Amino acid sequence: xxxxxxxxxxxxxxxxxxxxxxxxxxxxxxxxxxxxxxxxxxxxxxxxxxxxxxxxxxxxxxxxxxxxxxxxxxxxxxxxxxxxxxxxxxxxxxx
Length: 95
Hints:
The chain is an alpha+beta fold. It contains 3 helices and 4 strands, in the order βββαααβ.
């Protein structure tokens, strides 16, 4: 299991998300002063029966939104790069 690192608020974060048919998950990461990426926090949540019936893209979008809500206390003043394997979600670039 990787070691978790303490975040530095003036550095950008990377948010990796993914969704399966039953679970959403995320990893919040940040680069150190040498450019080495380290995990800051991990998150996973079981989907409800209702959510399991959603399309793949809707489950993937839910993974992003759930992770942003979960990590809000860490990232609310920082730049965030969201990394997802769903190309249609790239329209969510700036907000």
